Amino acid sequence: MNLLVKLNVILIIVFAVALVPAGLITRDLLDTNAQSQVIQNARIMMETAMAMRGYTVSQVKPLLAPMLDETFLPQSVPAYSATEIFNTLREKHPDYTYKEAALNPTNPRNRAVDWESDLVNEFRRDTDRQEIVGQRDTPLGRALYLSQPIKISNKACLSCHTTPEMAPPAMLAAYPSGGGFGWEMDEIIGAQIVQVPMSTPIKMANTAFRTLLLTLVGVFVFILVALNVLLHLVVIRPVRRLSAMADRVSRGDMDVADVPVKGGDEVAILTGSFNRMRISLVTALKMLEQD
What we know:
Layout lengths: L2 H66 L9 H12 L7 E6 L11 H12 L6 E7 L2 E11 L17 H6 L13 E10 L1 H52 L15 H25 L1
Antiparallel strand pairs: 1-4, 2-3, 3-4
Helix pairs in contact: 1-2, 1-5, 5-6
């Protein structure tokens, strides 16, 4: 095994050994970053839904108010508007799901299930808490979720949710379950929940990790090739010339030409020493022949 091969083997082993802990650390960071990115996307989408709720209460509902006594229009319901705008966002982000889970909803589809009720009750217990991020097991696998409280902060929201007598008859006819009443100002009545399969951030992390790994391997291969070329030009070729000169001198061929000396590095110094040694050897042999 020649010197260049030995050096390449050593460099490859060092790179492989260094890549293992670096890969583990990087993978952990990429997983964390992917989850943070997914949560941030969910946060933006949730804020968009919340903005749609406010827009519906302040601008859409007053325009539709004269019609609500005779005809119930779901477009006047903030939760409906928020859900619809989120469904539009889901066309480009199908992995994200949204629900406005309430303990006492008007629409039965918004009724909170067990784990959603736990979130709502946690917001009720700690009214200063603005967000809950966590993971849960689902029939389709583990999921990541983001939740924020739904708080009655606009009196206009109470027009349909204080008592059945104050609610529009059309709404009572559309939702005969009798839920969604008894709400009070500043009360937390539910929670917005955005849920994403853990496979989404894992896929993002895997893609980023593969890209990083391929980049590192590509950079290493480029450096290895460049290093091999430089070593061949600076070290291997001059050493081979010296070896060939020494071999010919050892066989009695004293007419071999000097190896050119370029630069002032260690290889150049060694080359100069070999040239002087050859000259000294030739001189010594001539003196012996004269004697």
